[in-house]
Amino acid sequence: MSRETNKAIRRYAKMYRNTLIRENFPETKEKENQYCSRLREMYDSHAFKEHNRYPSTDAILVYAVIAMCLELRSFGLSNEEIIRFTEIMFQERRSFFDHLIHMIDLLPNSFAIVRLWNINDHAKRVKDGSITYDYFRAADSDIEYRISKCMYVEMFRYYGIRELCKIFCNTDIRAYTGLTRHVQFIRHSDLSSGECCWDEIHRKQRRTRSESEEIG
User: Which of 116, 96, 110 is nearest to 179 (CA)?
Assistant: First the structure.
């Protein structure tokens, strides 16, 4: 096992334990040890070696979340309860991300930033093969793409919990929910529960003064 995966086990085990304590789970030390054991075994697997070959996908993080999902499911938690647990566990990370999104939302060129994000991300994903696009279109005021295969989903599918990849699929929704001034995000479906991930992103058109007065 590499130094990187050993470090990840310590980091995510601490986050997992703290969330167990916060949520009043019993026998937290035993549960933490079980999580470490499962994650260590997963990192040592042939499957991890296969999944950890896409530079644009953080398989170390994804496996840490999958191991947590499997542990929580063994306690009898529902998918909704597991998703809520992950939101609490990564709250600090999410708060930083939310702050960054808020700052971008204040910029008049926020759609241009989003457009560049998507173009660059598409290029990286196509290059390493981590995502299969049926199509990708980035026009001046609109972005639309349809994805038929995603390695995030494939990793969750491998461990029999495809539907819990919603944890990662929801990241886009959370980001675009914070971009309200100049960007409109429409998700038709995602691969955690559907046959494809189909998103549209539009630049919000600014109303003229006369249009605003007419509406008012």
Answer: 110
